Amino acid sequence: MSLKINSLLIHGGTDGDVTTGAVNVPIYQTSTFKQDGLGEDRGWEYSRTGNPTRAALEKLIADLEQGQYGLAFASGLAAINTVLSLFKTGDKLIVSDNIYGGTFRILDNVFKNFDITYEIVNTTDLGAVEKALEDSVKAVYIESPANPLLSVTDIEAVAKVAHKHDKLVIVDNTFLTPYLQRPLTLGADIVIHSGTKYLGGHSDVVSGLVAVNDKKIADRLYYLQNAIGGILGPWDSYLMIRGIKTLGVRMDRHVANAGKIAEWLEKSGYASKVYYPGLKSDPGYEVQKKQADGAGAMISFVLKEKYDYRKFYKNLKLITLAESLGGVESLVCHPATMTHAAIPADIRKKVGIVDELIRFSVGIEDADDLIADLTQAIENSAR
């Protein structure tokens, strides 16, 4: 039976427990499994290699992304590390010009040590992407919408160009989740999530997820997952499955709130620039509408100079200043000194990650209460 996304969120992957009839997948809190004889296991050997609770989550993310294979990791960066381990010395990646600072950090300070290099490209410019696809390039790494400036890359168009040159396409789908966007159906080869964010949804678990269609890529990733060992434990796998069950209802509220707040911000006079691909004024609006079922719930905005952004953060009462995003509670951060501090200042400035930039993860509180908190925090920060 073919299920729509809201049903898949609840019944996708492994639906309950065949042995006992439990409606929830049990937490198999074990490190190892009894074998009936040499070479005679019951499908499980050791929980780093495979665990039934984690396997249920892995099948679930594959189903949701309309992929064939899924993998679960201890964090989003553990997932990114494993995917990047597909490449070897001399390989090069094209990466979006505003990406999560942790992705930049692992590329610049870890994989560069093994002579796996990168080039920062504006992936919203198809011509620039194709021009950069020299022989040493093995993959294009995209975030769309990108973190933190919400630039939108045409995934299908980039995939066609990249595949014409025999390059892989990797998409970080954290900001939208498979509820709103499914990159594998647009031609991507590998989809990555920080499951910590919207998929978990309650700021109580750290995880990473990967989905792919190609068996050869999947087999190599499974090997690397086991060899590197950054796997997600059974308890956290259970929390992820539980969080995903409510993803649809949460995302509907997140997106509705974000749309209302973005429109208010644009008209408020408080911000010199508002980044949100759900605004008709946003340069990515049409592409976003074409390839996704919504604009997500991340907003970034540049506070006008007449306001002190440091005081703004101090003045907030309902909205929390914190790392991360995607929880039910609204969070703000200062990208220049928090999430993107690993990126050199000249690169930050060039792409638009200025000191006055505020990244807002819109929660599911009442939108009017959030607007009221933003209003008082900004007005009380006037210089």
Keywords:
383 residues, alpha/beta, seven-stranded mixed beta sheet, five-stranded mixed beta sheet, 14 helices, globular
How far apart are the termini? 61 Å
Determine the fraction of residues in helical runs and give it as a percent range.
25-40%
Return the CATH class of the largest domain: Alpha Beta
Query: What can be said about the biggest beta sheet?
Result: 7 strands, mixed
What sequence of helices (H) and strands (E) makes up the elements? HHEHEHEHEHEHEEHHHEHEHEEHEH
Strand residues, percent: 15-25%
Q: Please state the second-level CATH architecture of the largest domain.
A: 3-Layer(aba) Sandwich
| Overall pLDDT metric | 96
Low-confidence stretches: none
What does this structure look like?
By secondary structure, this protein is an alpha/beta fold. The protein has two domains: 5-245, Aspartate Aminotransferase, domain 2; 248-379, Aspartate Aminotransferase, domain 1, CATH 3.90.1150. The protein contains 14 helices and twelve strands. A seven-stranded mixed beta sheet has the order 1-7-6-5-4-2-3, sandwiched between helices. A five-stranded mixed beta sheet has the order 8-9-12-11-10, with helices on one face. The termini are far apart. The mean pLDDT is 96.
Give the structure's gist in a few sentences:
By secondary structure, the protein is α/β, with parallel strands linked by helices. It is 37% helix and 15% strand. It is globular and about 75 Å long.
